[in-house]
């Protein structure tokens, strides 16, 4: 009888352990599902995001969305994308291509637009009231021989020299505007040799160097010494660019087909990052469509991948690196191509042709504890937990009740 009682006690303990395992696995499954389900969320309507900009303090953001009629609808948020409001009068049928906020005065915004006929179009807009109203720049860019203004592709402002606004164009090079009140003027950067360049991106380095990513390569413009040079050592055609905000020698480029690379010597030599972790393998066309560096922590990078299928691009994934690209964590898959990324303390924001997407960022701050996660469960997670507890509980309670009756009968049985 004692052996039978010992066996039943052992069986009861094993049932309790099994109950704990079932409950633990069910809970972890629910939490893990929450990580996947809440990884991305739509921050703006499902409309193409053409431009995204933030003020120097990262408190106010602006986004330009392209309406079906190809005009721009401008939105503003003051709570890192939780709530947006439509703003902007004076835009009419203007198509905004890029936005930038004046570092010295967050109420001043500049917008680049699609060009057009010299008499009826504009290429630059100005707002002095936080994007509420807009007006044309006092001075237009030069028109071509057919009296057509160039498309503005990208804008950048030098934080060290806030009066310098850099304007990249589609096939007419880079211009720098002097935007001091009542003294507007501009000049062509780099001289006539750069007038035919299509500018894809502009990044201002920590010492006021201007990095111009063009369809023909990467150009570095030294405004302080009025010189420029071209980096000819790129491993492949570059389509995205980031510069360390503290060290002008550290450059990152995303290529059209072979992943991401970095240089530690100002572009003389390049080294591939961990592209295998980003999905690259021989025969795969892996484009880094967007690349961004955290100004508060230059070791922190995010990038977006896209895959080439014939002559078309399909969405890839968004990755995060806490160690300057030596290792990567996938944040989310993207069904469409990401055109730009913005890092904020609230996460990573990705601009796509289907809207602005917020992606949870795992690298800033300590990981959430299980109790913290339990406090923010979704309905689906709660249902999974209830089902797990119910099934495990019914199984355990039923066995306990049976075992207790067995123990009782053993206790009162004659010896």
Can you walk me through this structure?
- This protein has 415 residues and is an alpha+beta fold.
- The chain has 3 domains: 2-36 and 378-412; 40-58 and 258-375, no CATH class; 88-232, YVTN repeat-like/Quinoprotein amine dehydrogenase (Methylamine Dehydrogenase, Chain H, 7 Propeller).
- The protein has helices spanning 2-37, 370-374, 379-412, and strands at 40-42, 49-54, 61-66, 72-77, 85-87, 96-101, 109-113, 116-117, 124-127, 135-136, 148-149, 152-158, 161-169, 174-178, 185-189, 199-204, 209-214, 217-222, 227-231, 238-243, 251-255, 260-263, 271-272, 286-294, 297-309, 312-321, 329-333, 338-344, 347-352, 355-359.
- α1 packs antiparallel against α3.
- The longest helix has 36 residues, at 2-37.
Q: What's the short version?
A:
The protein has 415 residues and is α+β, with helices and mostly antiparallel strands.
Helix content: 10-25%
* Most strands sheet: 4 strands, antiparallel
Task: Please identify the structural class as seen in this structure.
Answer: alpha+beta
Segments where pLDDT lies below 50 for 5+ residues?
Answer: 30-39, 362-378
> What is the CATH topology assignment of the largest domain?
Methylamine Dehydrogenase, Chain H
Give the total of beta strands: 30
Structural domain tally: 3
Write down the Rg. Answer: 29 Å
Query: What's the CATH H-level superfamily name of the largest domain?
Result: YVTN repeat-like/Quinoprotein amine dehydrogenase
Tell me the distance between the termini.
8 Å
Strand order of the largest sheet: 1-30-29-28
Overall mean pLDDT: 80
CATH architecture group name of the largest domain: 7 Propeller
Supply the CATH class of the largest domain: Mainly Beta
| Beta-strand content estimate | 35-45%
């Amino acid at each position: 009888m004692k052996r039978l009682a010992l066996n039943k006690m052992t069986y009861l303990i094993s049932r309790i352990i099994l109950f704990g395992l079932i409950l633990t696995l069910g809970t972890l499954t629910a939490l893990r599902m929450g990580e996947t389900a809440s990884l991305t969320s739509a921050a703006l309507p499902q409309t193409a995001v053409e431009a995204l900009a933030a003020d120097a303090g990262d408190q106010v953001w602006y986004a330009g969305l392209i309406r079906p009629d190809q005009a721009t609808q401008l939105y503003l948020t003051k709570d890192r994308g939780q709530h947006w409001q439509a703003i902007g009068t004076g835009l009419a049928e203007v198509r905004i291509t890029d936005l930038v906020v004046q570092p010295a005065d967050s109420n001043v915004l500049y917008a680049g637009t699609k060009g057009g006929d010299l008499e009826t179009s504009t290429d630059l807009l100005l707002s002095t009231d936080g994007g509420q109203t807009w007006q044309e720049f006092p001075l237009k860019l030069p028109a071509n021989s057919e009296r057509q203004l160039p498309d503005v592709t990208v804008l950048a402002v030098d934080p060290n020299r806030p009066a310098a606004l850099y304007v990249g164009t589609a096939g007419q090079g880079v211009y720098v505007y002097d935007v001091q009140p009542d003294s507007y003027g501009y000049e062509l950067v780099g001289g006539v040799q750069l007038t035919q360049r299509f500018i894809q991106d502009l990044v201002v380095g920590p010492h006021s160097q201007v990095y111009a990513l063009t369809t023909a390569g990467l150009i570095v413009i030294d405004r302080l010494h009025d010189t420029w040079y071209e980096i000819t050592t790129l491993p492949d055609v570059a389509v995205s660019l980031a510069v360390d905000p503290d060290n002008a020698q550290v450059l990152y480029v995303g290529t059209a087909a072979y992943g991401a690379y970095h240089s530690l010597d100002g572009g003389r030599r390049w080294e591939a990052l961990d592209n295998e972790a980003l999905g690259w393998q021989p025969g795969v066309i892996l484009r880094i469509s967007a690349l961004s560096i955290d100004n508060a922590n230059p070791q922190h990078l995010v990038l977006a991948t896209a895959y080439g299928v014939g002559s078309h691009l399909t969405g890839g994934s968004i990755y995060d690196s806490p160690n300057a690209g030596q290792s990567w964590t996938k944040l989310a898959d993207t069904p469409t191509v990401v055109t730009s990324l913005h890092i904020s303390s609230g996460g990573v924001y990705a601009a796509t042709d289907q809207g602005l997407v917020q992606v949870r960022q795992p690298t800033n701050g300590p990981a959430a504890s299980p109790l913290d996660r339990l406090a923010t469960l979704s309905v689906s997670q709660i249902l999974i937990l209830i089902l797990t507890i119910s099934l495990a509980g019914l199984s355990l309670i039923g066995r306990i009740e049976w075992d207790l009756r067995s123990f009782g009968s053993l206790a009162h049985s004659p010896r």
